[in-house]
Amino acid sequence: ELIDHVVAVAENTADELARSDGREVQLEEDPDLQLPFLLPEDGYSCDVVRNIPNGFQEFLEPLCQR
């Protein structure tokens, strides 16, 4: 739902400007969010984590040991 709303906002602003200039609007990004978008690189971490699902820490432990 959020992605649909973001797409609608983009179509109503930037896409309309491009169309008014006679340019074709093309999708340049994969519609599936890639891992660096969801978990930023360069050692980024948030200060506060909320609403972690049960079992998530156990899921991450083997990944953190590698």
Describe this structure in words.
InterPro entries: Afadin. This protein has 66 residues and is mostly helical. It has a domain at 1-42. Helix content is 48%, strand content 0%. It is built from three helices and no strands. The model has no long low-confidence stretch (mean pLDDT 78).
List keywords for this structure.
66 residues; mainly alpha
Strand fraction band? under 5%
Radius of gyration: 18 Å
Shape estimate: elongated
- Could you tell me how far the N terminus lies from the C terminus, measured between alpha carbons in angstroms? 35 Å
Total number of beta strands: 0
Q: Which stretches are poorly predicted, pLDDT < 50 over at least 5 residues? A: none
**Number of helices, counting only DSSP H or I runs of 4 residues or more:** 3
* Mean pLDDT metric: 78
Helix content: 40-55%
Q: Describe the sheet with the most strands.
A: none
Structural category is mainly alpha
Order of helices and strands: HHH
Short description:
The protein is mainly α and 66 residues long. The protein is 48% helix and 0% strand. The mean pLDDT is 78.
Provide the fold topology.
Blueprint: H1 2-20, H2 35-38, H3 56-64
